[in-house]
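for the writeup, i need someone to sanity check this before i put it in the appendix. the sequnce is what the collaborator sent (i think, or maybe the updated version? ugh). structure was predicted straight from it, no edits. if anything looks off just tell me and ill rerun, i have time this weekend
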Amino acid sequence: MNSEQAIRALTALAQEHRLAIFRLLVKHGPAGLPAGDIGRHAGISPTSASFHLKELDHAGLIRASRDGRYIRYAFNVEAMQALLTFLSEDCCGGHPEICGHAFIAGDKICESMES
């Protein structure tokens, strides 16, 4: 991930409904949710949900797939890991053990810090 991609992802997440939608999709894992359910869970209209889903998709943070007559959305695991790695690759001068438990527990993050 480069700076431009990170800025695009962070910009997409820097909005209340989009952040809530992204967190909802992370909670539901790779199976994701149909678009209509996402709007209901987020408490927003279908039109608003569609707009926010488009922005998250454009930033590469979620993926859409057809499920019969529905569009199902799920978070993009690789994009989230790439963003977290980009944000933390220089953590604590190359000593992730002093950055806290979350950095030690994340295999991908710790591997990138050791390189």
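The longest strand covers residues 62-67. The chain has two domains: 3-75, 79-114.
thx in advance!!
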